[in-house]
Amino acid sequence: MPKYLCLQRNLASATPSGDKPSPAQMQAMYAKFNDWREKFQTNLVDLGGRLGAGRIATAGPTTDGPLVEVKELVGGYMIISADSLEAALGIARECPGLVRPGSGVEVIEIHSPQ
Amino acid sequence: MSVPPDDHFFRHEYGRLVAMLARRVGARHLETIEDAVQEALLAAVETWPRGAVPENPSAWLYRVAHNRVSGELRRQVRHGQLAAGHALSTHQPAAEEQLALLPGDIEDELLRMLFVCCDEALPVESQLVLALKTLCGFDVREIAERLFTTEGNVYKRLERARTRLRDGPDGAELTGTQLGSRLPAVHTIVHTLFTEGYLSSRPESAIRRELCDEALRLAAVLASHPVGQAPETFALLALMHLHNARAPGRQDATLGLLLLEEQDRSLWDQEEIALGLALLARSTEGEVFSRYHAEAGIAAEHCLAPSFAETRWSRIAECYELLEQAAPSPLHTLSRALAIAEWQGPDQGLAVIEGLEPPAWLLRSYQWSVVLADLHRRAGNKELAEHHRSSALEAAPSGAIRTALARRLG
User: Fold this and answer.
1) Contact at 8 Å (CB) between B396 and B407?
2) How many angstroms separate the CA of residue B228 from the nearest CA in chain A?
């Protein structure tokens, strides 16, 4: 099955701070995420994580470079496997926490030599 | 991977962490603390389901929140917003603080925070909102929903409390004497929390149920510590359990008394009744008689009565009289009138109310009309009964209550 890279994107239209979820809402998010994980466990290759600070290794001196901007745009990543891009989008769309007001998921096919 | 076992894990961790950090860095930094705790919980939501839940989730959360608080305080010192003394060292929580994660000590911290919330310089409304926010982990919207007020109102009350904590004496250094002098305020808050959840005439019972559970949780913490082990505490805990035990027939005070006759007593939780009675017995070890004793006494009489007809109404009328002395309210007088009517007849009940000059809010409420309608009906005063009956039905705050009233008043 092809693999897909999922990038959590903060949508430009949303205000950056937004509403902070309450502890009760976090409890619900946590439970929903676990349900989603159960449901698609065979598709989840790497649950990834949130992205922190980064630097670029180049031929010259290291630099913070454009990754600072990438960090602001991409909240986190994960890798899933699915039959098609459509199916991968379907799995990502159901993922609570990734798809919510203010954020969406960009799903990108990872080419692998067959 | 295991999901945290308790449905209220995040909410209760919030309260626990805020209390522990307030003790560590001082309640004057409450806003910084609350932000850090929020972020720590969010970090847990984001990382735990992707890997494994840490072996000791509470310790994990404390470490993350503690690091955020110390980072933020250092930042504030760097920017000249804080005196240098407020910065914490960068070290991981020391062994001594890890020890603070033992359950008994966590309860100490919760208890201390409860006393911090009950600052006599704050109006009770602000104390209540502060306790709901910091100890129970409800956010502004959720508090507004539960107290039937606006978010703006909750926010205002909270701001007042935070300003006081920022500028007032630091709660983390409350002395034993100060703790003692705040105990009545703590009782009031826990009682109010329970009453908000239990006695309200409004619908949406499920979310209000949570307020009762929170009140019981805080009262249990109070009763587990020497500083809270006063007769009033046990009486308060007794009254909550004796009410809770009859939860299936739960209604507000006046209506509850009126509809008691219809209740199926076999549904009452006998184990919880036994617990309530044991606590009530413990509350009499001392010279104190408080309103909580009177209320628990009334609840106990109802729990002990094999049937409505066999209730010891003389004892209940007596308890209401004591309650009126301990906490004067025309609502208590109305309830006594109902008890006397059961004991000595409707005319005697009416005699209790005769001298009463009800305040405007009571005149407008259905409680006043329903008691008069009921007593006049039983005394055979048809016209007066009908007059008060229609006022009662008109003033009923919900459809459920209106239906119940119509059934009771015939």
Assistant:
1) no
2) 28
Residue B231 in any domain: the answer is no
Burial of B209 (0-12, 13-18, 19+ CB in 10 A): middle
pTM (2 d.p.): 0.78
* pLDDT digits 0-9 by tens, B221-267: 999 888 899 999 999 999 999 988 887 555 555 566 557 777 788 88
| DSSP label of A22 | P
Kindly list the residues from chain B whose CB atom is less than 8 angstroms away from the CB atom of residue A30: 3-4, 10, 44-45, 48-49
Average pLDDT estimate for B317-330: 93
Q: Is residue B96 predicted with pLDDT exceeding 50?
A: no
Beta-carbon contacts of B175 under 8 Å, excluding residues fewer than 6 positions away, are: none
What are the tens digits of pLDDT across the range B135-162? 999 999 888 887 778 999 999 999 999 9
Contacts of A47 in chain B (CB under 8 A): 49-51
ipTM reported for the complex surpasses 0.85: no
- Domain annotation covers residue B306: no
Angstroms from B17 CA to nearest CA on chain A:
12
Check B138 against A33: CB less than 8 A apart.
no
Between CA B116 and CA B195, with CA B168 as vertex, the angle to 5 degrees is: 35
Query: B192 in a domain, yes or no?
Result: no
Cα B390–chain centre separation? 33
Whether the CB of B14 is below 8 Å from some CB of chain A: the reply is yes
Q: Averaged over A77-104, what is the pLDDT?
A: 85
A103-110 and A44-50 strand pairing:
unpaired
Shortest CA gap A84–chain B (Å): 23
The dihedral through the CA atoms of B211, B216, B217, B222 has a sign that is positive
Domains annotated on chain A, with CATH: 3-15+22-110 (3.30.70.1060)
Q: Which of A26, A40, A100, A103 to mutate to test the interface with B (most CBs of B within 10 A)?
A: A26
Put simply, the answer to whether A29 touches B8 (Cβ < 8 Å) is no
B-chain CB neighbours of A78 within 8 Å are 50
Number of domains in chain B: 1
pLDDT band of B281, cuts 50, 70, 90: very high
Domain hosting residue B51, numbered range: 1-101
Query: How close B241 gets to chain A, by Cα (Å)?
Result: 25
